[in-house]
Amino acid sequence: MDKFSEIQxxxxxxxxxxxxxxxxxxxxxxxxxxxxxxGLIDEAVKIAREGLRxxxxxxxxxxxxxxxxxxxxxxxxxxDELLPMVQDFPDxxxxxxxxxxxFLVLGRIPESLSAYKMLLYFVPQDSETIKIVQELxxxxxxxxxxxxRTDPISLSSFDVQPAAFAITSDPEFKRRKKxxxxxxxxxxxxxxxxxxxxxxxxxx
Length: 204
Prior knowledge:
Helices cover 72% and strands 0% of the residues. It has helices at 8-21, 28-37, 41-54, 59-71, 75-86, 93-105, 109-122, 127-142, 152-157, 163-168, 173-200.
């Protein structure tokens, strides 16, 4: 039986022909995504990696690969692919969500919260993300720490401090935290503006 549905088949074959005609084109990204949607995850990973050898900084290719790796439950590999890129492309919402969910599965709660909050920065009315952030923060503070204590990966990666102690011992804690958040957002806005300028100048 053909592995492709009647809808998927012409689209995949179209991308595949373009890719075969020009293996250096960026069509490998939608081809890999089409393979993934068809359930051909290994083929998607293979095509994405082949294309990224030619276009190593192509964010669309990185996202296509990361999606396939996520489907294979290779969450650390997702982080390895996307973390170096999101500094230059912070407004890629798909990448941010993949990072957030991968960190969450790995039990790396502070980093997951950071990625989810970045999503809220760009889409502040996203009710689903708002709910997730609230739940993660409630759970973290309920445990008295910003790291899951049962996760050896997290414990080895972060200096664990009781959140309640940090708040109650310093009345100015919240104010200083807000100031740091504003400063961080200013830096991020500068990066986003540089990125948009490159796109407008055709340098992206």
